[in-house]
Amino acid sequence: MSKTYYATRKVKYDNIIFDSKLEVICYRELKLLLAAKEIDDLKYHEKFPCVINGIKVYTYESDFTFIDLKTQKAVVREVKGYWTDIARLKWKLFKACYAAHFDKFEIQNQAGRIV
Question: What's the pTM?
Fold first, then answer.
């Protein structure tokens, strides 16, 4: 697999190409929760256009989205080993554009913690 800009390697797992090993780890955990019926509607790399004042600023590509069945909340989870200034800005813009669509915005770091 090819390297991405920040020296992570794309990884193929379950016939899906992930951006990093960290995403695969998160995906495997979410698949277990899906099998245990704790989450539903798991999606990977769903695209969301961020439109401000009628102008499409960019398209955000989420790492994972799902429904938490315990809380009935729509969740978007971003998996990041390293945050660039651009990534932080895009995350903030996405949250501003989709605050009404999602109930919870999560970041999973290298240690596997949700922050």
Answer: 0.85
